[in-house]
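Might you be able to check the backbone structure tokens below? Thank you kindly.
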Amino acid sequence: MKVKYIFEILEDISKAKKKADKIQILKQNDTWALKDVIRGSMDMTIKWVIPDGDPPYTPSEAHNHPTDLRRQNSKFKYFVEGMEKDTPQFKKERMFLLMLEGIHPKDAQVVVNMINKKTPKGLTRAIVEETFPGLLQG
């Protein structure tokens, strides 16, 4: 079975009509990267140090990206307010841009939406709380 990109999982969720189907998709594709994106998008206790809006980056080609969001999500800690205080802001922003440029362009858009607190289409707090109890704090 092919491992799906995060954007593919979120597309499947947005197409699913029933709550049970959405929960099943989430459970079948349970990864830290997916949970991090959901939490980063929906948990209001998480504040980002990256400026809102569309960052100035050049997306990689969809067929030729050097890395994957499932490998890069561990860098999210650098972009959360109050974490990694020893890393200067300009380094955090540069790291963020390099991450966006290295992952699939549709996953890069998922990360930009997360930073801008846009809930993934088709997801609700109730679905997330039923699937991953305790994931969302605020």
Remarks:
- The CA atoms of residues 2 and 71 lie 16 Å apart.
- Helices lie at 6-15, 19-28, 32-42, 69-72, 89-102, 105-115, 125-131.
- The first helix runs from residue 6 to 15.
